[in-house]
Design brief:
The protein has about 90 residues and is mainly α. Helices cover about 70% and strands about 0% of the residues.
Length: about 90
C-alpha cells in the first residue's frame, strides 16, 4: 500500500487537527493514570519497567505540547519576527 498524498487525502477530512491533538493529549494523560489504578500501585519486574517508560513518554508529551504552543501560528508572524531580528 502506498502512502502517497493522494491515498492519505481522506485523513484531512476527519476533523480539526487541533481537536485530534487535544484528544491525543487526553489519552496520553489518562493511560498512565488508568494503568496505575489497574495495577493497584504495584510496579515490579518487567511490567514496572514498562510503566516507568510510559510515564517518561507521557511527561515528554507535556514538554512537546508546551513547545507546540510556543510555535507561531502564521508564517507572516515568523517572517515579521525574522525581519525584526535582522534589523
Amino acid at each position: 500500500m502506498s502512502t502517497s498524498p493522494e491515498n492519505l487525502a481522506w485523513l484531512g477530512r476527519q476533523g480539526n487537527p487541533r481537536h485530534w491533538l487535544d484528544f491525543h493529549v487526553l489519552m496520553g494523560i489518562a493511560a498512565p493514570v488508568l494503568v496505575t489504578f489497574h495495577s493497584s500501585f504495584k510496579f515490579s519486574g518487567l511490567a514496572g519497567v514498562a510503566f516507568w517508560i510510559m510515564v517518561i513518554v507521557a511527561l515528554s508529551g507535556f514538554v512537546g505540547r508546551y513547545i507546540y504552543a510556543q510555535i507561531p501560528r502564521s508564517l507572516g508572524f515568523a517572517e515579521v519576527s525574522l525581519k525584526d531580528a535582522k534589523e
